[in-house]
Amino acid sequence: MSSSKYEFRIRAVTAFISLTSDDLQPNLLGQKIEQCASFLRTVEHLLTSAGYEVQTLRIATNPFGEYLSPVILNDPEQLRQTLHLLDETLKSNSIDFFAMGPATTPAQVESCPLIVSTSHRLSCSAELGTKDTEMAKKSAECMRSISQLTNGPHCKNGLGNFRFCATACCKAFIPFFPGARSLSLSEQSLSDRNVISFSIGLENGVLARRLLMESKSVENISTVFCLGMAQALGPLSTICQSFADESEEKIKFVGIDTSLNPSLDEGGSVAAAIEQIDIVNKFGGRGSVAVVAELTQALKSLPGIVHVGYSGLMLPVMEDSRLAALVTSGDIDTTRLLALSSVCGVGLDTVPISGDSSLVDILSLILDVRSIALRYNKSLSCRLLLCPGRKSGEKAGIESPYLCDCHVLPL
User: Fold this and answer.
1) Which of 174, 177, 258, 274 could make a disulfide contact with 309, Cβ separation 3.0–4.6 Å?
2) DSSP one-letter string for 197-240
């Protein structure tokens, strides 16, 4: 951990804004992004002054089809120019994380590879419908296309899919990327479109480990763990809410995503933290579903904390060293991850699969995630990292400071 006095970091302060086609004029876009960036830096200063470590400042928008017109989306050159303008605006305001919201039609999904390829700053997603499978099919094709991009280190060896996912039942204000999004324009009044909302995402594997060691057994999660987590997050929640209440600007604090989220630090694995509970000998084995279900219930009911986003258990395979080791040993596969997703948050996240996986195999995983999300009305996403030239059992070979190396999972 860092020198922060807290046992967790703030992974993301994410601001949510609404854009229309009118905002894409250079002067208006610059003004809107500058205003939002200034707001984020104010929040960052407030939190760091209180002793918190803030890792990233992020901006997420309404679905990009609401501000990128069909004329732009259907013309690759116009889209490229518009994305370049956006990227330059973000760069000049020192914003490195910008989610453009979800594609909401199959045609819009076809624009996602170009969005991802343009810059390391840009992320997007595809919102899966409740009935037809066309969006899921397009998402599978999109993941395949993104994995084959070669223009820059942000896309090398399949890394581009780090910034794209398919989402199901994901509501607005999730602070984590790439599924983050603001409200659709149809969900807002005209005055609401000028409000900047913000939420907080955490990196809290070390804190989770201590609280679960103290809990020892599953029956203590609702008391020892729940109260300990609420106590840890209470001051952060108070600071953010007070700032919004006292601000003269149109600011709204929408809550904390209380999800357990790992770090690559020593002791930062969430999977290893869960192994501190007596009925879990090895994460993914017997007792894991029971503990994960109890943890999710606790994270959604922390006293005094307004929760938002996933607020469950995050199991990003390539962001959790213990999970990666369990994949290598054959103790974790996509079927077990899906089973855990039925009682916790997020879905399939940073799951490395072979670069030559068939579209049917990719589609099957996306539809499995969608089915669980719809059945239980929970926010889930599917972020698959297709590894070009790599087979099941081989090292994924994706290089990123945010990821640990891991073996490719079999399908």
Assistant:
1) 174
2) EEEEEEE-HHHHHHHHHHH-SGGGIIIIIHHHHHHHHHHHHHHH
178: cis peptide before it, omega within 30°? yes
Q: Is 325 helix (H, G, I), strand (E, B) or coil?
A: helix
- Judged by DSSP in three states, 72 sits in helix
Cα-based torsion angle of the residue sequence 354, 359, 362, 402 in order, rounded to the nearest 10 degrees: 50
d(CA 61, CA 29): 13
End-to-end CA distance of the chain: 35
Identify the DSSP state of 307: B
Give the containing element (helix H, strand E) for 142. Answer: helix 134-147
Residue 131 has which token pair? Answer: 């009935």
Q: CA 317, CA 310: separation in Å to the nearest integer? A: 17
Band of pLDDT at residue 344, cut at 50, 70 and 90: confident
**Which residue intervals of 220-358 are DSSP H helices?**
226-246, 270-274, 288-299, 321-328, 334-341
Per the confidence metrics, is the pTM higher than 0.70? yes
| Tally of CB atoms within 10 A around 342 | 16
Confidence at residue 353, expressed as pLDDT on a 0 to 100 scale: 98
The answer to whether 96 and 56 are in contact (CB under 8 A) is: yes
Give the Cα separation of 269 and 109 in Å (integer): 33
Residue with tokens 């969005």, as numbered in its chain: 115
Confidence of residue 345 (pLDDT cuts 50, 70, 90): confident
Radius of gyration of the chain (CA): 20
